[in-house]
Amino acid sequence: MDQTTRRTFLAGAAGASLAGLAGCADDDVDGYEIWGADQGTNTIYIHEPDGDGGFDEVDEIDTGAEGGEVPHMVDYSSDYEYAAVACTAGARTLVYRTEDRELVANLETGAGSHFAGFSPDDEYIHVDAIGEEEIVRVDVDLENEEFEQVDSIDVRENDTIVDAGIEDGSPICHQYAQDGRSLHTMGPSYHDAALVIVDHDDFSVDRAYSGDDIPTNCGTVSHPTEEKFYLTAGLPSDPDADPDEDPDAAAGVGDFYVYDTAEDEVTTVESTRGVDAHGFWFTPDGEELWVLNRETNDGLVIDPETDEVIDEIDAFGPEQSDDPTESDAPDIMWASPDGEYMFVTTRGPNPLSGDPHAATGFNPGYAVFDIDSRERVDMVQPDSDNPDSDFHGIGVRPIGEYDGFTSPSY
């Protein structure tokens, strides 16, 4: 199996170029499967392309049977042989062997375990635990399938974080930069937003920025070849807020930030041209970065070479309206490794996370977008008539041989 994984790029991409990635995402993919997390029914649905433009369900995982209530996010080991699923209400992280869907670890990582991500070398899993106000470190031995919780960073007691003036908020999401650090957004509200940067080798806080400086509270993704990092900041609009007294609350916020990890400074702050900026994802060739707005059900396509907007997506979910209560709510996205599709989860009528004003949707499942045309070509909805269905996390796992880049989750 010749797998050029995402973390291979993070480990050695500093001297590479986007031109080196171009053409990698093509027909060199034997296949892939999509893991869609229905946090409302404690189910992970696994689909594969059927060869005719559709997607067949090939398996289901009942996370609730293992105490994994509200499976929120999915992340993979560098070889995609293991999947970590953070379960917010279950206060735990479940680790599955992906080939046979067998549970190999049930880790009590704490209340509000929101995102669990493998380190680039697969030696650790770091978990952003909202309810514990901690970044939790799990020691990993994949060869023997052994996992042990060994340390944590309490954001209320860490001197670097406290000295930065971060008094509220909890770790939300993170990903790994090329320089051996992980960048963690704080939240969940925009009012709790901040950024904490961790040296993931010695598990110490390298630096921290308060919300006054970098109010990021959601998405995190590293540029595939350059020493820069992307983050999102989102806030739903509040129809009861006074626009004169609190314009951000009244109108909502949708921004993305570009952080230079070599110089440790923000180089770009741009509007996402919508409200409640949330998930985003690179195309496998590294030439486009897609970003979505949850409340306004729309988004942008960004050129990561210049960080300029090159296109807009009018609607990720099929129900679109100026009234967010009448519109679909997209959340997280992940590209197919062959570069053909972008998969975007869409929320249900009774969302278990996020502000209901922004996160309530009509078509729980995930939208399938043709990357070249930017058009929605399918909706995959395994439990569409169930009012509890509420899709949030998603992951795409290459099967067999492939040669390309798949960007890290967030």
Automatic annotation (TrEMBL):
Its cofactor is Cu cation. It comes from the Archaea. InterPro entries: Host-pathogen_enzymatic-act (IPR051200), N2O_reductase_N (IPR011045), TAT_signal (IPR006311), WD40/YVTN_repeat-like_dom_sf (IPR015943). GO terms for molecular function: DNA binding. Keywords: DNA-binding. Residues 379-410 are annotated as: Disordered. The keyword Nucleotide-binding does not apply. SUPFAM superfamilies: Nitrous oxide reductase, N-terminal domain. This is DNA-binding beta-propeller fold protein YncE. It comes from Halorubrum alkaliphilum.
